[in-house]
């Protein structure tokens, strides 16, 4: 980061790459016990999901809800959740999307 700040022109640093530099600084400053950590550079919406299983306790990704019809199993709605919500809290959002 220091090398990039030194070598990039000042106007380019603030106009072109400011959002990237803020992201990189946040990643370098995060601690193991911090909340809202960044787990992936190319997919910033990814978060840690505790599975509670012995062989694979944690998984990294985004929770999604999929609604289908009862008889033909035709998909009628899909919602990707921004936060790691409990399954009981995801139902109202997918029902709104289906309506």
What does this structure look like?
The protein contains four helices and four strands. It has helices at 2-7, 10-15, 18-29, 87-98; strands at residues 47-50, 58-61, 64-68, 75-80. Strands 1-2 form a two-stranded antiparallel ribbon. A two-stranded antiparallel ribbon has the order 3-4. The longest helix is centred in the first third of the chain and has 12 residues, at 18-29. It is elongated. The mean pLDDT is 82.
Write the layout of secondary structure elements.
Layout: H1 2-7, H2 10-15, H3 18-29, E1 47-50, E2 58-61, E3 64-68, E4 75-80, H4 87-98
Antiparallel strand pairs: 1-2, 3-4
Q: What global shape is seen?
A: elongated
Note the gap between the termini: 48 Å
Strand order of the largest sheet: 1-2
**Radius of gyration from the CA trace?**
20 Å
Parts with pLDDT < 50 across at least 5 consecutive residues: none
| Oligomerization state | single chain
Q: Biggest sheet, in brief?
A: 2 strands, antiparallel
The computed structural class is alpha+beta
Q: Average pLDDT, to the nearest integer?
A: 82
The topology string of helices and strands comes to HHHEEEEH
Provide the helix percentage: 25-40%
Strand elements, count = 4
Number of helices: 4
How much of the sequence lies in strands comes to 15-25%
Whole-number count of domains = 2
């Amino acid at each position: 980061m220091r090398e990039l700040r030194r070598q990039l022109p000042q106007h380019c640093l603030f106009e072109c790459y400011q959002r990237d530099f803020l992201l990189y600084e946040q990643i370098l400053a995060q601690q193991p016990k911090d909340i809202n950590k960044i787990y992936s550079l190319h997919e910033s919406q990814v978060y840690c999901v505790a599975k509670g299983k012995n062989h694979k306790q944690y998984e990294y990704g985004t929770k999604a809800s999929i609604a289908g019809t009862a008889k033909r199993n035709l998909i009628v709605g899909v919602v990707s959740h921004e936060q790691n919500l409990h399954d009981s809290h995801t139902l109202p959002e997918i029902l709104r999307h289906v309506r």
